[in-house]
Structures are given as C-alpha cells and as structure tokens.
Design a protein that fits this description.
Two copies of one chain form a homodimer. Chain A is an alpha/beta fold. Helices cover about 35% and strands about 15% of the residues of chain A. In chain A, strand 7, helix 6 and strand 8 form a beta-alpha-beta unit. The first copy, chain A, binds a DNA duplex (22 and 22 nucleotides) through helix 1 and helix 3.
Chain lengths: ~200, ~200
DNA sequence: GTATGTGAATCTCTTCACAGCA
DNA sequence: TGCTGTGAAGAGATTCACATAC
C-alpha cells in the first residue's frame, strides 16, 4: 500500500466496523468477510475493504478476516488499545444520563471521574462515582486522563473548556450547542441534538 | 438559478445557519452578511452563499441579508414553519434528559407526548407530560404528529420502530446504537454517542 | 472458486474567480 | 465600492473493474 491521506469519512466509519466485529465475535463468528460485515451494518463491501486498505491489508484473500485480529487492528488504529479513560463535566440531566449510558464499554471507554460546580451536587455519589468540585480539576493530572465529556450549560462551555485544556485534556466530546475554541493540539467532536432533530422535517416531505 | 441536486452536507448546515441567525437577531442584528454569519459559526462565507444559492437568492448585493427574512427562508426550507411536534419513546435516563432539554425550542420543535412500556412509569408526570402506555401509541394519530425521538433500549429498537411507522410517524431521531429498518417513506437520523466518542483517541495522537 | 486489495473512473462537495447588482 | 450569486476548477470520497493470492 502506498501513502494516502486517510479520508475523515473512513475514520468516522471505523468505530462502526469495530462494534460490528465485536458483536459478531460474541455471536461466535471467528471468520468475517467484508460482505458479511457490510450486510450487518448496512454498508457495502467495497467501501469497507477500501477503508481498511488505508491502514494496510489485514485479511486473507479467498477467506476473509479473522474476527479477533480485525478487532485488534481497528482498536489499534483508533488508539482504543491505550489510554481510554475520560472525565465528565456537568452533572445535569444529560450528564447523568451519559454517566449511566452503557454504550461506551464495547470500545473499552470508561468514565473515571465526574465534576460539577453546584455545591448541592458535589460530594454526592452517582453511578459509583463521587461528584467532585470542578475547581479541583487538577486532580486528574496524575491519572493522565486525556478525554472529557462536556455536558455543562452553554454559557459555561468556553470557560470550562479552557480549564480542561489547562489540565491536559486533549479530546472533548462536546454536547453543548456552542462552538468551543481550543488550541490546535486539542480535538473536539460535537454532538448537537437539536441540530440533528431540526433537519428531520426537511427529509419528511 | 438552474436546477441542482441539493448536497446533503448543505442540508446539514442549514440548521446551524438558522440558529445563528436567530441568536444574532435576538442580539439586535437586523442585517447580516455572509461573512458575519461565517465568523459567528466558524465557517466561510463562500460556503454559506453557495448553500443558500441552491434554494434561490435571498440576499441583497452590496448589503447582505435581512436577518428576519433569512430566518423565515431557512425555516421554510427546513419545513420548520409547519408541523413541528414530536413524541418521545422510552423514558430512561437519556429519554428523561432529552425531555428536559431546552435546545429544541429555538427551532420551534416541541415534544408533545411521552411513552414507555414500564408499568411503574406509566401515569407519572415528567416535565408537564403524563407518561403514556406505548400500547396506546395510536392516540397520536388524530394529533397528526409525524416525528419521534427513540430512546428505548437497543433490543426494543426495531419492535418499537415498527409500531411508530404503523402510527404514521415519518421521521425518527434514533438514539439507539442499532440500525433500524424502515420503509423508504420514513427518514431516520441517528445519534450514536459512543460512536462519536470512540474516534476521539484517534485524533488525539 | 472465492474474497481481498487497489489503481482508475466517477461522483460529490468545496473553493476559486469573477460577473451582476444595489 | 461592497457583498451576493454562480459557473468552472479543484479537492475529496465512492464505486468500478480487475489483478492478486489463498
């Protein structure tokens, strides 16, 4: 394989492939072909093979992919084989829901600490974690946590983001509807619920 | 303007433009240029003008856009000027959080009814709405509600989706991590929290 | 025979460059 | 002069077609 810039769309699809492979593996599948994978996630096999090809060739011609090996390969590409711990900031309705959410585990992602600025919440326990004071954010530094889930009110988004960056956070999953400014070394992925909801009527005509 | 197929990426950006315009209008802006809008949302002015151009031309050369008129135009394109009511199915942690979420209002979207299958929840009140039995879904038909937010556990996703489709739902905001099968006339937009979280480590290297 | 891996062709989207109009 | 609107060029992503390997 020659050098290629990896399409962002490819990176976005990899977690899907990973989840599918894990689920199929759990279901007993030891070998997996690109068409089986495509069928499972509603994609097409050429796309999947092309996506994989950017990172090397990890299948066997005429046979397919070793499911376990594929899981390892994708995990490695996505850097899900290393540091996978995150903190969550903002224990409102959405924050609490995400704390209770079980979908992260399939990727080995784990929320290790929770912060809020509300004195009535600090000290309380939620999903096995004691809610900490956001002023004590630097306690995460020795733990080397690099990811944060941001579920604070919009008007606090930038302020809290700055604090996160100061405390070595390098990736933020942003649930606020604001654009947050970060240094180039920090990556933000945003989920904007209302934004996605707002285009439904367009498609429904 | 000649005929053009509208890029899906354009449609995805329209809600952002709309929100920005509404916020800027609230801030007192009566005229708005594409570069001001671009600055506000972190995009670029050419992109914005091109996006608008697919739907006609609603600015004034040398001047910019009338903010209020722009809001109307985008709302009309997105069909946010008509039926904007939705139901929510599955009052777990995430469902409750979304029910309490205030971000929909800027688009005029409204959750009008909530359903669950848990007998201990049915009849209880949440955010001013009584939780109804999912078996009584057909009560929405006379209300002509066409949108649903799906926050049920994954193993119920397809079953509940089928019921929604039977009851004239034509657009679904899907928070489950499954692919749900629907007839072609029904549109699904999916938000998969773990999927977006799982690619953060990749970008953080 | 069967399924992967990949250049080339195609399709889609973004950016450029500038014409058109207040 | 200033900002919109838009064909044309360029960049990016998908699909095709087939060589390659088991």
């Amino acid at each position: 394989m020659r050098y290629h810039k990896i399409p962002d769309e490819t990176v976005k699809r990899l977690p899907r492939y990973l989840r599918a492979a894990v689920l199929l593996r759990r279901g007993g599948k030891k070998k997996l072909s690109s068409s089986e994978l495509a069928e499972f996630i509603g994609s097409n096999s050429t796309q999947i093979r092309k996506d994989f090809s950017y990172f090397g060739s990890f299948g066997t011609r005429g046979v397919g992919y070793d499911t376990q090996k594929l899981i390892k390969q994708i995990s490695k590409i996505l850097k899900l084989d290393g540091q996978r711990e995150a903190i969550l900031i903002g224990v409102g309705n959405l924050g609490s829901a995400i704390l209770a959410y079980e979908g992260f585990s399939i990727y080995g992602l784990l929320i290790k600490a929770v912060f809020d600025n509300n004195l009535r919440k600090i000290g309380k326990k939620l999903n096995g974690l004691v809610i900490e004071d956001i002023a004590k954010l630097k306690s995460i530094r020795p733990k080397k946590i690099k990811m944060a889930i941001l579920t604070v009110p919009s008007n606090q988004a930038q302020h809290v983001t700055d604090k996160l960056v100061d405390n070595n956070i390098r990736g933020i999953l942003n649930f606020t509807s604001c654009r947050i400014e970060v240094p180039r070394k920090v990556k933000v992925v945003s989920i904007d619920i209302a934004l996605d909801m707002a285009r439904l009527p367009y498609y429904m005509q």
